Task: inverse folding
């Protein structure tokens, strides 16, 4: 949910940033990425090959980070949100326990590399997001069901099947009339065996009547 809030704020923030500040932040991000790749074991030649892509990514990240910073700073002032030393020490202690370090040593390391200020800003941003969630109205929207369009391969396959299948022959006019007459005629009930036997006997007697010799 917090990522959605950050995305929403970035999309609806319409102010422009000074280019000098964006450039300085981009250089700082680029240096961190450069050092991180070297620490992962990549050679300088490999890192230099990726500098163009890294610089483009760092420019975008710098713009988003600075924009987020100013938006969150405005929200913190509006809601009077601040981070105390007790909150900072408490979060450092939790992080130190997870990493198996002493809290005092971790705080010293954060102060040494200059990341303690960024740590405080991150805590402030988290409190701002929590404040926004308290007053936000969350509505769940079901995604619209979209009909799948037939791909070109499917269409071509269907056309090929139609060509291969034999086309039904058209009925001739005489055949159509014969079918229509057959439909109009009433269906005859099938005769039983006894009825067929009596009819055959009657026909036989009529044919041989008066032909018998009298002794």
Result:
């Amino acid at each position: 949910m917090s990522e959605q809030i950050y995305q929403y704020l970035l999309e609806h923030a319409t102010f422009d940033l000074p280019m000098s500040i964006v450039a300085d932040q981009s250089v700082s991000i680029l240096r961190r990425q450069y050092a991180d790749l070297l620490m992962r074991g990549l050679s300088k030649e490999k890192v230099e090959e990726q500098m163009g892509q890294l610089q483009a990514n760092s420019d975008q990240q710098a713009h988003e980070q600075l924009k987020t910073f100013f938006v969150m700073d405005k929200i913190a002032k509006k809601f009077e949100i601040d981070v105390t030393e007790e909150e900072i020490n408490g979060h450092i202690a939790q992080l130190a326990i997870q990493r198996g370090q002493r809290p005092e040593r971790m705080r010293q390391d954060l102060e040494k590399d200059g990341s303690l200020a960024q740590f405080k800003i991150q805590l402030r941003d988290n409190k701002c997001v929590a404040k926004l969630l308290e007053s936000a109205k969350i509505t769940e929207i079901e995604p619209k069901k979209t009909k799948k369009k037939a791909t070109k391969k499917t269409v071509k396959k269907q056309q090929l099947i139609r060509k291969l299948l034999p086309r039904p022959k058209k009925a001739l006019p005489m055949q159509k009339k014969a079918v229509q007459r057959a439909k109009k005629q009433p269906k005859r009930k099938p005769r039983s065996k006894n009825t067929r036997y009596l009819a055959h006997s009657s026909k036989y007697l009529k044919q041989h009547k008066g032909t018998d010799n009298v002794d």
